[in-house]
Structures are given as C-alpha cells and as structure tokens.
Amino acid sequence: MGLNSLVICCFLMFSLLFISGKNWQLSLAELIAYMQARQVNFEIHHVSKEFFTIQTHHAIDLKAIEELGGTIKIGQIMLKISSQQIKDAYIKQDKQAEKQIAEALEKSGIVSQIVEHANGKVFFGVSVYLEDKQLKSRAGEIQRLFGSAVKAKLAECGRKARFMGFANKAKGQLSHVEVIKKGLVENKSEILVCIGRETSWIATTFAVHNPFEFQKRDVYKPRQRKIFGMPPRLAKIMINLSGCTEGKTLLDAFCGVGTVLQEALLIKADVVGTDINSWCVKATKDNLEWLTQEYDLRNVDYQVVQSNVHFLSRKIGVENIDCIVSEPDLGPALRQIPTTPYAKKIIKKLVPLFFGFIEEAYKVLKCGGTLVVVTPYIVTRSKQIVTMPIGEKAENINFMRIKPFNSEFFDKTLSNIDTLTDLESLIEVDSRHLIGREIHVFRK
Fold first, then answer.
1. Angle 413-414-418 from CA coordinates, rounded to 5°
2. Domains defined along the chain, listed by start
3. pLDDT for 33-66, tens place per residue?
4. Strand 122-130 to strand 161-164: parallel, antiparallel, or no bridges (unpaired)?
5. pLDDT-derived band of residue 120, with 50, 70 and 90 as boundaries?
C-alpha cells in the first residue's frame, strides 16, 4: 500500500487503536516507521503492552494490516470514558455506572453501526484488553457484562442478537482467527474494550491480521530451511523499520530462502538477494517465482545472485540500494544455555563477518539509505547478556544510528516515555531458540 492507499482527510481527526503482537516494543517501533515512511502525520496518545492509541488526519486503509507484521487488530475509537467508571459498573456492579455506560454506548454510534451492517439476526463479539494486571482475571467477566449492555441496546432497536463471549473469567478476547471466521470485521461487529489505568477506549475493529496468509508464505512455499528460517511476520516488521515502500530497491545480503525478499515484493519494492550458498540462491529464486504466481504479482523486479558478502559492492555496484534488511549468521544452534565465556567466543568468531558486511553495506547504499541488521543476543547461564559491538563499528564508517522511538511522535502529556526513547535497538527472543535477535537500524 503506497500513498494512494491512504485517504487524506484534511478536516477530520481519526482516533485509532492498535492491538499489538507479543513483542509490543517491536510492534510500536514498526508502526511508527510505517507511518513515517508514508508521510502520515500522527501523534501517539497512549502506550501499553496491550494496545496503543494514535490520532491522525489520515484515514488508514484496511489493507494496512496486511503490511504490518506486529499488529493484530486496528480499531476506530468510538468512545472514551473513565476506567473507574468501567470498574464501578462491571466489577463493583454499580447500577448507576452501568446506566451511564449504556447511554454513552448509544450516543457513540457503536450499536447503530452494528445494526446497519447486520443481515438478519445480529452476531457480535467483544474483546477486552486490560493494562492493569490486577484486573486481568476479570477480563471474561467484563466481556460478558459489556456484551449484555450492547445486547440490551440492540433489543431496544428491535434486533435479536447473539453475543460471542467466554465462560472462562480470565479469557476476554477473541483471537484474530475467531474474528476472521465469524466475519466480524465486515459486519463492524467486534467491539474492542481497552482499559487503561485512568482512561478507557471503546473501538470498532475495522482490520484484523490474517495469520493464514503468513502461514501460507511460511509453510507452503516450495523451498524450506526451517532451522535458520526467519518468520514472515518478523521479516515484514524489519522491512517496515527500514522505511522501504513501493518502488524502492531492497537488498538482503544473506537471503537464505528469500523470506525478506518475498515480503518486500508484496509491497511492490524491487528486490536484490545475495547469498554465498548456491543452494540458497536457487531456493530463493524458486520461492520468489512461486510467490509471483500465487499472488499474481506483475511487473515485479527481482534478482538473486551468489556472492560472498565481503565482495558485495563489486557484485551489485556502489550506491544502488535504498534499503538493506539482513540477518547474517547468528551462531550455532545451541542445545543448552551457554556459559558467558562460550557466548563471548561465539560473538568473537562472528565479528569479522558482521564488520565486513557493515563496510560493504555502506558502499552499496545510496545516501540516506537505511540498514536494518540483526545481531546475536545471548543470555548466559549466569544471566549476563552478551551482544555484538556493532554500533561503534557502524558509526566509525559514518553510519548514523536511528533509535526506534523519537519523543516527537508522542503526546507531550505522556509520562515514562524516556524508557522508550533511550532504547538504541530492539530485542526479539524466541523461546524455541537460545540465541535471540538484536535489531539495529542505521542510516547512511
């Protein structure tokens, strides 16, 4: 989705709600980079591990969800109320508070929107996201009581309704799979109840992540390399962190079986892949050919060549690339948590590869181009963290580090943002692997 997919509405302010994936910092960093790359003016008004709220003058096309790897749901905020009011109504069962929320729901247009899109009997769902850990055990209870309030308002409109909820008190959220299968997005009938510590937001879901598409590109592509594979979700996040958009040229210098290149082709970028392994080069070509047919991609431009990363600039030329997104060798597949000396030994062995790659990346990037690179992140038996000292090397050859969070994008009244804006990199740790990923962003 390029700029033409963003409907610019100069006189309207859109309040949007984003439900993040498991790694909320990665999700938020990706969202910020995605909006920046598409020149969308926005301001973040609330940040938590469960959800974010932003205000913008741009109406985001529902296809945006297909281009975000770290966002589960996007909602249009319809109502903003006090969290204490929700607690009074649904925890303390204060009838007056319940009545006030019911009246606010009616005025918000949420119920009338459900009625407008329903054919026959109304079917709707409610998902509750709680910032307060102490309330998490009550999520299912809040879900049912809120659903009952909506159902009562639908009855006043003369519509019979079926509410999708759970008997389990702790489970108050519909998964993205459940929302897709029940057609709740098309019918504007999933309500997101996001309860912050002081303020709560009620939204209608208008886009939801489709895991089946990611699964297809991960599991059903013709050539696989499971041990060293990067999931399409993470590849998409890294592409967005690079600021890559339609028409730009993206390079993956360690392309493996082409996961990063696949995701970049889907946003209509031109892609270049290199790998020292001839099998990987062939596998990537097969996978990209499969992708172009499976998704009916026309007029796409991709090339994949065998190359040692130390000779990258000789192979593909100087200053030809807009964005580089790469995950070099992260070390051996460990069977047990390493000692600190062994972790340091792993890093030391990989330093020449990474430093050589950084030097070549600088040569092939255009001025203003972006490098997103993954380095090993190892937590040892003694709980020490061992990482690659790549920042100093990058800065010595005139790369500028891009921090994932900039205070200019946050509402000035937000507190505790310093913990985010101080971060220099992003960490992704998969419980299945003993070596995690540290993701860095640099600009030439």
1. 125
2. 3-209 (3.30.2130.30), 215-443 (3.40.50.150)
3. 999 999 999 999 999 999 999 999 887 877 889 9
4. parallel
5. confident
